[in-house]
Amino acid sequence: MTxxxxxxxxxxxxxxxxxxxxxxxxxxxxxxxxxxxxxxxNKIQRIKKNGVVLYFRDEILxxxxxxxxxxxxxxxxxxxx
Length: 81
Prior knowledge:
81 residues; alpha+beta; three-stranded antiparallel sheet; 57% helix
């Protein structure tokens, strides 16, 4: 028994769980260089299939949540209390 899933449902699934490179960079509000550095250092996992690169939405959101803490830790000169 196979379950048919419409293209609309497939796209909704992709949107719910994955981000493109541009979407991830925009969400994190960082430069492309910084983003690719995170990917190359395995701080962000990428998924490649037939030339398409996607990123887990949950992982990007988790990174976004931790971003302020990380910035304060590694760039304290920007946060003069």
